[in-house]
Amino acid sequence: MASIIGVDVGGTFTDVVVLENGHLSGHKVPTTPDQSDGVSAAVAGGPDSLFLHGTTAATNTLLEERGADVALLTDEGYEDLIEIGRQDRPSLYDSSVDRPEPLVPRHRRASDPAAVGDADIVAIVLLDSYRDDSAELELARQVSLPSVMSSVVSPEFREYERLATTVLSAYLTPSVAAYLTSLDERLDMTTRLVMTSAGGLVPFREASLVAGRLVLSGPAGGAVAAAAVGRHHGHDSVISFDMGGTSTDVCRISGGVLSVGTGHRVAGRVNRVPSVPIRTIGAGGGSIAWVDEGGALRVGPRSAGATPGPAVYGLGGNELTVTDANVLSGHIPTDLALGGTVTLDVEAGRVAAERLAQTAGLDFDRVVSGVLEVVDAHMERALRSVSVEEGADPRQSALVAFGGAGGLHASRLARRLGITRVLVPPHSGVFSALGLLLATPRADAVRTVMIQAGDERLATWVRSMTKDAVEKFESMFARAPGSTQVSADMRYQGQSHELEVPAGSGRWDHVTSAFHDTHKERFGFDRPDEPVELVNLRAVASGQAPMSWASLPKTSGGSVPVGERGVWRRPSLPAGFALDGPGVVIEDNSATLLEDGDRMTVLEDGTMEIAVT
Hints:
Helices cover 30% and strands 25% of the residues. It has 15 helices and 30 strands. The longest helix has 28 residues, at 159-186. The radius of gyration is 25 Å and the shape is globular.
């Protein structure tokens, strides 16, 4: 194979990683309005090359509300279920906050195929189709429009979540399919895979059929890579911190393995598909600072994007951003080419800061430091949401910082959370793209079984689920998977929600013991004498990742570290090199800020480990 190419599209930059002839390189290019334009222009590879892709096409379609006109075909009497939902409020004590408007208006919901009106696509959701898909298949044959069936998208019980997930997938499908088709036509590579929200790779054609599974396609690559680097360095628990130009993504990883669940929401909407538990906030290097009606300094979620970008890009931006504040604070050297291509216009950043200072009634230094303080507070809150709020002590984790801006804020955030170790991996500026090369081809299968503990059919169900996942993998990749795993959604009888535990070969004593232990770990108690039931079985078939962290080409460093006035060039730093803060370590695609009291050491694989005191 000539080369392996990973491309991750962000809101500001598109990151590219290429592994060729044992050499790994990475670079950034500005993200284009039509992502396929920027992606196809950024890569070059022959038919033998492997192309791996992380995309925000699904996320952007949803957030910008430019999806398809969807019709809903469901059981009579259930047409309004999408609007009724679960009767829960998004903010219990704020009466002004409401749920998002349904993606299917009332006049396009029907129980009769003949009543389906003008639409782009039909979502077919029948009450019992998770057990028998034949009725949905028959309806799909009767309608003349493209259709998405719940028995394919989310074949599990709980009708509202299944309906909402299917409608969301239908809403995204036309635009995602059009994007992948457009990109497919521009690429020469024979093998083209895209990252799913579960952190696995699937062929373009498969992804086009289940667009809802791509909502976390981009951020999942970073989480996969963070798990690999944490595992390599022996950290049982890590928190990934990916700060890009438009947003920040955080995820807690335990035992070196990504936890994949199905309780994900995006933009307030249910999306019950296998997903890495990533929390995303609108705070990145391009986030714009502003003053609210009460005179308070705010940052984000609005972003300057790639065009015009932060004021210091010199492309016409005139509003102060986080990147501008980092430059004006001296955290980013003024001669650094951001993304390897953007020359800094410091004076433009200064003008933007002075304008905001006047509006806020603050002096220049206060407004610049205030922007960094506000954005740090946003990101600290996000990091607490995946640790403290889930019952995990962040002080027991290492913080893995990456993205173009991650290294600039990591030390301060670690100090605020009591974290004593920060890892800044090699190629940190394009780390999510690197994660694509570390991800495995993956096929998922799920089935609702609803059986009581002791049911002798469990082992048979496990074998059946394994067979389903293997067959699905073979149909997608034309080869057998390297491994399979089956898990079980368990609960005490009478509970309304489940915990996922390994099912192994289907022995009840092992499954129930794992459930009791997990319940006690999560909630602080267990009830070993209470009857237990198994609701769903999930199977995953996985192939081999294109590369592993251990096989990552080492960044050799130089014989003589290069640095002056507290600014060091990362490519020149050899393994074993140590540096006390304050200081800045720069590379083509990112920079890392060392605070006073930090001690940075370059590890054998090129990772910078920062001891925070």
